Amino acid sequence: MHGLYVLLMVGALVASSRDGLKSSIGQTDHQKLIRGNTSLPKLSIGLIVPHTSFGVREYTRAINKAVLNLHKGHGRAKGQSRFSFLDKYEFTPSQVNSTMMKLTPSPTAILDSLCKEFLSVNVSAILYLMNYEQYGRSTASAQYFLQLAGYLGIPVIAWNADNSGLERRASQSSLQLQLAPSLEHQTAAMLSILERYKWHQFSVVTSQIAGHDDFIQAVRERISDMQDTFKFTILSAILVTEPHDLLELVNSESRVMLLYSTREEATHILTAARDYKITGENYVWVVTQSVIENLQTPSQFPVGMLGVHFDTSSESLVSEITTAIKVYAYGVEDFVNDPKNANRSLNTQLSCEGVGESRWSTGDLFFKYLKNVSVEGDQGKPNVEFTQDGVLKAAELKIMNLRPGVSKQLVWEEIGVWKSWEKEGLDIKDIVWPGNTHTPPQGVPEKFYLKITFLEEPPYINLAPPDPVTGKCLVDRGVHCRVAKDSDMVESKNPIRIVLRKYPVDKFPKGIGENNSVEVIEPLPFLSNRNATRANGKWNGLIADLVNRKTDMVMTSLMINSEREAVVDFTVPYMETGIAIVVAKRTGIISPTAFLEPFDTASWMLVGIVAIHAATIMILLFEWASPSGFDMKIFSFLQNNPSTNHRFSFCRTYWLVWAVLFQAAVHIDSPRGFTARFMTNVWALFAVVFLAIYTANLAAFMITREEFHEFSGVDDHRLAKPFSHKPMFKFGTIPWSHTDSTLARYFKEMHSYMRAFNKTSVADGIEAVVTGEMDAFIYDGTVLDYLVAQDEDCRLLTVGSWYAMTGYGLAFSRNSKYLQMFNKRLLDYRDNGDLERLRRYWMTGTCKPGKEVQKSSDPLALEQFLSAFLLLMMGILLAAVFLLLEHLYFKYIRQHLAKSDDGGTCAIFSLSVGKSLTFRGAVYEAQDILRHHRCKDPICDTHLWKVKHELDMAKIRIRQLEKDLEAHGIKPTQTKNLHVSRVLHGVPGVSFRENGKWFIWIMLSDNWWFDGVKEAWHISTSAFLKEEIRKSRLVARVLPKFGPPYTTGAIGGGSSASATAILRFVSPQC
Prior knowledge:
About 40% of the residues lie in helices and about 15% in strands. By secondary structure, it is α/β, with parallel strands linked by helices. The radius of gyration is 55 Å and the shape is flat.
């Protein structure tokens, strides 16, 4: 009877819960206290919680408590007694519209809850709190609900245990705040465990659980953020759909696995892992919240597993209701207090019936206020804040360890806590490790030995004995090795010890030895003096050792090609290479045109034709137009001013321009005009710049050219067809090498010819090129570049383009388990720049392999400035040609040119030519000689002083007589004297004494002439001047050296002073 009563009571409770949680809200003891002001608009929110029959009371109590605290002002901003939005809106527990949702609701049920429960009462936000962890349909339903809410523009404050399964892109596009720890928090906590125990490398294992791609991406992003403090390596990322997918883990070096799946999927994965023997004391599995779920443990889980977990119990969910309501209240408070939102309402006015708006326009704005809140957290914890993606900033996760319980069953036990807001956020107690041990696994494979075969070839492999005292490497960049001369000596107790060093060996001791426990301190390599080619269908050398499994790895300058890849496995290339040609530089002679090479042809044409002639014409033009110069009257200027000292013409301008350009120390005639002089200075500035540039570049060309055979490449016709060139070039390579096999395949004639010149080693080939025994040596491009850089005299040079480009790689036997390990390290070294730094360190030598580089210095030889002598010789020959032309001019051309040049046109072009055509020019020349005449003896000086004294006394007497005349009332006439003075002092003349007589050379103006027959002057000027000339007793005679029709006047008898003063102009006619 008592049991029946209990059943009836349970049935009544179930029936009462069908109307939902809504009927219970508002029935608490505090209803009267927070009844609210019914005149204010209502502020409504929605609440979705898991469906339960016994948790209604807890939900109701949490809602009432949270709303009551808001009205009491708990959690309010500092300085406020209560939340100010409660003065504008009515917010009571009855405005929290709640509904319970089952584990896997149908889409119709989700739509009904939105339309009937929430939109009908104008909710401004939805609180979505679910603790289901099925990661199947429950995750899908949650995703569907959140996307619908985002489409309607209603913000969602969520706390769901399976939030890691939500699609990150969809959640980021919706208006969602997540209160539960995110997938990023879980990955950060898991990697903190790995960092604590120095596990650098691991693998990621996932199932097809929702969000598995997001988990891998979150791991990669966290690794990228931590790369400055701790370096991780993801060996593999495996998506398990079938048990055999775990074979990749079996063949890898991974000993630490991160697992993300559901608990059911994890059971199958770990069962397969146990079968493949990748569980146990050497393997660590770290799992996520989704694997642990509700702490129930399947028997298939191995002991010692680690995991991250957060509380998803009903009690934790109920406590999050208060947090969610506080977040909402803080967001409303900030929204209402912002003056910009005075005209905006928090009533959505949405409907599923086609009435009203389809999306709440204010929802995006309101969500920004919710996202920026800072709610006071529990004691000892930071405030509740969110990132820009709506993810909780500060999260706390429990670190769980699977260990035997009291009943010997495996149970999840909390061993520590991870706090995201602390720098050292991980706090862990004692752990039971895999295999029930108390020491953590190494996280890497056990140490092993590698048998390495290599071929000594600088700079990739270089052998050197260790220090005889310490037995260690003499350089930092080296590996101490034990070397056997052949495979039979590997087991010997006393192998030869050497130091294995150089590129790329440097990085592997640290990169592999420390992190993977590969024993490289004393490896057991074979020393091979053979190459790796195929002969008669069989492999020899290095490749043969790999094919026959005599070695684990080949490390040398081994070029990757398709034939080798068919039988062995190569790592990713660590350096590009190809087939190149090295030749020697030979000293040649300097080019005859070396002095012209600082500028190209166009530059010389621009300077020689445009600049020089333009400057010449402009200077002459400015001088012709200047008032200080010719004043645009050059003909009348020369005729009316026959005694002028202004000597300027086109040729003299040309001479000026050339002299300034080359800064020649020669006599030049400068222009008088200011503009012409300014233009001359501009040209001088141009000359300074031109000569500076020319001189700076001249040194690079005035040296001997280093000649070499500039082949275009291996396919150059002089090499590919060796018999087509006479004499034939001598070149070779190393037989049975990659270069030799490539040439044998594609250049059969060339390969057959070069056999006679092949060398056994690279050093022999280089020496043959240096000594001239061979013209060229063909081999791997990077090796030849290195040897060229190491040549101290810079006598070597690689020429042409590289042929058959490929790369260097490390070779392993087929399906070697070490391949991926070395591939990963090589990729890391390439990404962080280590390979490039090593290349610069080892490949750089004393000589840079450039065509213009020469390290050695020698005294200058004749051929190094031979072009200067050639230039001088050309100048001498050109001067001889000009001398011949000058004689031809005076003998044959001048007399014909004088007949046609009446106006002095030739003087405009060349003043010297103009002088040679007229007597006037001869007089000018004499004037130039006599103008600077100075007395050379005391008698001359005495006579000159006497004449000047007489002249001064005569002037004094004349002034005295003029005063006497004025005293008697007679005013002397000044016109004749002024006219005579103006005329006599304005016309040039030159006098000299010969045989006791004074002679004068004078140039008459056009209206003066002398009749030689009648011995009479015909002067068309004033009578006064005529009388003065007759008084001077002028005698005319013909000078033989000038010949007719030129004449001069001879003065005899009268005063030399008066004669020279009067006779200053004569007629040009005779």
